[in-house]
Amino acid sequence: MPTAVLTTPRGLLLDFGGVIVQSERAVGWQQRLGGEVHELLAGSLGAHAVPSRRRVVGDIVAGTASAGNWRDAMSRPFAPDELGWAQFWGDFVAADWPAPAREAVIRDAKELCRRLTLAKAHRATRPGIRELLMTARRQGIPVAVVSNALSGQVHRAYLDENGLADLVAAQIYSDEVGIRKPNPRMIVLGARAIDVAVADCWYVGDNFDRDTVCGRRAGVGANIIVEARSTYELPYDLDEQPDAVVPDGHALHALFEDSLSRSGS
């Protein structure tokens, strides 16, 4: 699609997965995590009180698939809440486990979500993103991360470990605030955290159904899509279009620099 002429933003709101990082699905992560969860439960409750290792692995596979379907459905409501840690483990994974095992994973759900998020993917910073963040800092334009997440803790740790946290002024994650995109309040929270009006922000995501819709609902100054692996895997037909689509972080950085040059910054 043609790129609109975009005004220079006073703030940048960036999605995490697909924009800041590109993720590669880890092969066999369900088996490894299932074995780990089974060992934890057997160690604390005894083998007689927990499902078999095979059952634990199978329920993690089924639970993550059904939660993915739920998330696709939640792209339709105007202001969806997030699926909580305890609900994910208690209802989507362990609904039919013996009560002691189900109660144990509910009790440790936050930590188990962190382990699941770490286990399921290998992450790498997308080329061009560090340069974008550094340019924004030089220009005095604050950046916030606004992202759906099962464990925002993992995203925070990634930014810290990869020297990006100091280039980001605020981080808003759905599991921590209890709502998820396309709930427009996610973007409102991000803009508020950097003290910039929503209409003066660019919002950059990688999905039309979550990100573009969310930006339109919130009234951002510009809606931008960075193409990623799942960008065109829409769960349903959607007419909503962003203001610009770019192929990668370098192109996003160039778009940002172009807006700066046109404004005389």
Automatic annotation (TrEMBL):
Keywords: Hydrolase. It holds the Pfam family Hydrolase. The keyword Magnesium does not apply. InterPro entries: HAD-like_hydrolase_sf, HAD-like_sf, HAD_sf. One of its GO terms (molecular function) is hydrolase activity. The keyword Cell cycle does not apply. This is HAD family hydrolase. It comes from Microbacterium elymi.
